[in-house]
Specification:
The strands form two sheets. A five-stranded mixed β-sheet has the order 1-2-5-4-3. Strand 4 and strand 5 form a beta hairpin. The chain has a domain of 98 residues: 2-Layer Sandwich (Beta Polymerase, domain 2), CATH 3.30.460.80. Helix content is 25%, strand content 25%. It has three helices and seven strands. The N terminus is likely disordered. By secondary structure, it is an alpha/beta fold.
């Protein structure tokens, strides 16, 4: 059995255990390729991530990155998790509105989240409540978010067609 097959087999076994592991939380589970996707409400992000890290069957000890997807009607905040010991990948997703783009900080769970969250705040305006150092990472001190129109909020962003090499 090659490593790809092994990874998929392990994901199927883990996938079957997830409803029990997260029985206290309203979490939706999906699979895509070799990654397990968990969809949660924004206020449950920290709790979901903490369980993902602390549960010995999941052991997601590595936060690969935090990304934000800007859809026309919402922002999707994504937490890309990995278990170094089991080699399985998780993606935790939460949708937030443009009017209230807030989720709890996961910096208490993974220290690396500090920079990822600051970057997401600078680029998309997502507020990570409870973040220990919400200073701008890419923008200058004193940047006024109030009234700034991020691209997803109706600001016209030109599209330039280009050719690859």
């Amino acid at each position: 059995m090659d490593s790809k097959e092994s990874s998929n087999t392990e994901n199927i076994q883990i996938f079957d255990l997830l409803p029990e592991i997260f029985s206290e939380l309203p979490v939706q589970f999906k699979e895509h390729n070799d990654e397990i996707i968990m969809i949660v409400k924004p206020n449950l992000i920290r709790q979901t991530c903490l369980i993902s890290k602390m549960n010995p069957l999941l052991d997601c000890d590595y936060l690969r990155c935090i990304s934000v997807v800007d859809y026309k009607d919402r922002l999707e905040v994504n937490y890309h998790l990995y278990s170094l010991s089991f080699r399985h990948k998780f993606l935790v997703k939460a949708d937030v509105t443009f009017e209230d783009p807030r989720v709890p900080s996961v910096e208490p769970v993974w220290r690396a989240a500090e920079w990822f969250e600051r970057e997401a705040h600078d680029l998309y305006g997502v507020e990570f409540t409870g973040h220990p150092n919400p200073m701008p990472l890419l923008l200058w001190d004193g940047f006024e978010f109030e009234g700034y129109q991020f691209p997803g909020k109706g600001k016209k962003v030109p599209f330039y067609d280009y050719k690859e090499w």
